[in-house]
Amino acid sequence: MEHKMDIPGLQSFLIEAFPQVAGEIAVTELAADQLTVRLKVQDKHLRPGGTVSGPTMFMLADVAVYLAILSRIGPVALAVTTNCSIDFMRKPVADADLICTARLLKCGRVLAVGDVLIHSAGQAAPVARASLTYSIPPK
């Protein structure tokens, strides 16, 4: 499948449309049906107990699937999450970045579905897994 946006295009889109996360998330890999992003974990992402918060991991999963979809359909800012199921499986390492790999299972005209695995950098076992569905607005 051909990409309508490459890594620099996706990063530029984040800066323009979502500056609140643009400096924290970097697209590191873009393949046929997969996209990998890295979150630079900071103190603001931590919760009591010295771990990365659930809302931070949700945001990372959501942004990763969103960018994977945009890589395929182009800069459609109004594509929106309609469903998310996330499993928090292990405590992330507080002083390690999070690596999130999103895989598109379907990217149709009106719906897109993706799966996500999140790892702490340097750790083999995933810390979270998510499944997301997006609604794509009509052209």
Automatic annotation (TrEMBL):
The keyword Translocase is annotated on this UniProt entry: no
Keyword line: Hydrolase
Source organism, top-level taxon: Bacteria
MF terms (GO), sorted A to Z: acyl-CoA hydrolase activity
Matches recorded under Pfam families: 4HBT
Positions of the Thioesterase domain: 49-123
Full protein name: Uncharacterized domain 1-containing protein
Organism: Yoonia rosea
